[in-house]
Q: What sequence folds into this?
């Protein structure tokens, strides 16, 4: 007797698609959002390694792997803070105008090269009469011109100085040029990983804009950048600095720049995404 063969039809379970936005969360509209994430895939003046225009997309994709529960907050971040991701913008002429739309929110911009910062900061300079800048970076970025351009990534802080910002506090610096020294304020530079967070806070005004060039981190944990330098901040040092500025100051806006993703190694993209996640947590925990 032949045995009866039964065919069992299986149904594949379709997993829900993750939204292609920061943290991969369900979002509301721009009006109700408290945090806005602006991708700025702009790259025009990189002078060593390249690939910063891929940075925003890499950060967003990596952020979708971040566990959303924050022990400090006791809940998932998106249940406490309304976060919305904006459409990318890669035209320098439109950056200031786009940032101005959201100057009353907490806008985090994702670069892209560092030359985006002077444009993004313009509306904050208008709004806050005594604005200071916390710059985490391996380089002072105070050249007046670099490779024929006044809008080079190497000139970012010089262009910000020209907007009238006196207090630019630079942390993680390991490289500076002789020609930059006439623009440098030595009392506001904290070299490499040798700094006291309290001293950094003292040199900032109440209203602070944060610009975080990822080469400010030590290259052993952040080689995915066009101008790497040894001797920078550890992940924990960066967290401590972000925690302090978010809780002790009025942090009005931020950008994270100069990530050049390395194909097949998402760890560095994830590191930046996690720093941004923690910055949001610190600000709203405060």
A:
């Amino acid at each position: 007797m032949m045995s009866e063969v039964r065919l069992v039809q299986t149904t594949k379970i379709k997993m829900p698609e993750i939204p292609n936005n920061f943290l991969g969360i369900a979002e509301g509209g721009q009006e109700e959002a408290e945090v806005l994430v602006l991708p700025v895939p702009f790259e025009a003046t990189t002078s060593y390694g390249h690939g910063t225009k891929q940075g925003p997309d890499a950060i967003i994709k990596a952020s979708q792997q971040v566990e959303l529960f924050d022990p400090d907050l006791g809940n998932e971040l998106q249940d406490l803070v309304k976060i919305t991701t904006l459409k990318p913008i890669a035209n320098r002429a439109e950056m200031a105008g786009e940032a101005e739309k959201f100057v009353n929110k907490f806008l985090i911009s994702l670069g892209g090269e560092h030359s985006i910062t002077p444009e993004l900061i313009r509306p904050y300079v208008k709004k806050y009469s005594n604005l200071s800048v916390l710059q985490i970076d391996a380089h002072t970025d105070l050249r007046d011109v670099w490779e024929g351009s006044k809008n080079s990534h190497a000139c970012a802080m010089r262009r910000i100085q020209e907007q009238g910002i006196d207090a630019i506090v630079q942390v993680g610096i390991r490289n500076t040029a002789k020609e930059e020294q006439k623009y440098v304020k030595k009392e506001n530079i904290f070299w490499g990983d040798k700094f006291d967070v309290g001293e950094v806070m003292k040199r900032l005004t109440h209203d602070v804009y944060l610009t975080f060039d990822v080469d400010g981190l030590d290259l052993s944990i952040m080689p995915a950048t066009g101008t790497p330098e040894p001797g920078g901040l550890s992940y924990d040092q960066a967290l401590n600095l972000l925690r302090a500025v978010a809780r002790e100051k009025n942090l009005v806006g931020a950008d994270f720049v100069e990530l050049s993703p390395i194909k097949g190694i998402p760890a560095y993209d994830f590191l930046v995404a996690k720093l941004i996640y923690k910055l949001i947590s610190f600000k709203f925990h405060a």
Q: What stands out?
A: Strands lie at 35-40, 69-70, 75-76, 83-85, 106-111, 132-136, 168-173, 189-191, 207-213, 250-257. The chain has eight helices and ten strands.
